UniProtKB/TrEMBL annotation:
Protein name listed in UniProt: 6,7-dimethyl-8-ribityllumazine synthase
EC annotation from Swiss-Prot or TrEMBL: 2.5.1.78
Residues given in the record as 5-amino-6-(D-ribitylamino)uracil binding sites: 19, 53-55, 77-79, 110
Pfam families to which the protein is assigned, alphabetical: DMRL_synthase
Active site residues of this protein: 85
GO MF annotation list: 6,7-dimethyl-8-ribityllumazine synthase activity
Gene3D superfamilies: Lumazine/riboflavin synthase (3.40.50.960)
PANTHER family per the UniProt record, alphabetical: 6,7-DIMETHYL-8-RIBITYLLUMAZINE SYNTHASE, 6,7-DIMETHYL-8-RIBITYLLUMAZINE SYNTHASE DMRL SYNTHASE LUMAZINE SYNTHASE
Binding-site positions, (2S)-2-hydroxy-3-oxobutyl phosphate: 82-83, 124
Catalytic activity: (2S)-2-hydroxy-3-oxobutyl phosphate + 5-amino-6-(D-ribitylamino)uracil = 6,7-dimethyl-8-(1-D-ribityl)lumazine + phosphate + 2 H2O + H(+)
Residue spans crossing the bilayer: none
Amino acid sequence: MEKPPLDGSERFAIVVAEWNRSITAKLLEGALSTLSAAGVADAQIDVAWVPGAWEIPLVAQRFAQCQKYASVISLGAVIRGETSHDQHINRAVSLSLQQIALACDLPMIFGLLTCETMEQAIHRSGGNVGNKGAECAEAALRMVALLKNSPPK
């Protein structure tokens, strides 16, 4: 990926779910590494850990509403169980983040793994499918660059 133009003032927020921490910590590592490689200083990144995916939208909204961030990245892992609980969580979180993005005119990056098995989550958090946290950080960087060059609000 070509490095997007950053002026050093961009701040990024990352909201990470504690639930399935063995997966989400790896997603966070990928996101932080990607932002760092793009020239974003550690001091320009704020990370908030929340109990689970359900709690991501509220904290993401707080980050968005304070108007200090160029983008908010949300990371979590919801793995299918014996009921449809995962589907309700995934749908609610994805729709909430989309609504926040549109209401706040801010890139809200959806990094919630929605996997059938733990094995799938492992593969998507640094395994043979890559690291979706790193991909989310790349998307955040690209969106920030795109919006800097888009028509004014």
